[in-house]
Amino acid sequence: EWRAVATRYEKTAASFLGVLCLAATADWLRR
User: Fold this and answer.
1) In Å, how far from its chain's centre is CA 24?
2) What pLDDT is attached to residue 21?
3) Taxonomically, which superkingdom (predicted)?
């Protein structure tokens, strides 16, 4: 069960980082 939680957390962290990267890139492009 802990493995499923770890996998879900990794996916969440990955998607969060992806959104963060997209936002940073969009902000950088807007300047």
Assistant:
1) 12
2) 97
3) Bacteria
Q: Which spans in 1-31 are helix H?
A: 2-30
How far, in Å, CA of 5 to CA of 18, rounded?
20
b/e map 10-31, b = 16+ CB within 10 Å: eeeeeeeeeeeeeeeeeeeeee
Per-residue CA distances from 21 to 8, 11, 14, 16, 24 (Å): 20, 15, 10, 9, 5
Which amino acid is residue 12, in one-letter code?
T
Instruction: Quick: pLDDT tens for 15-31.
Output: 999 999 999 999 999 99
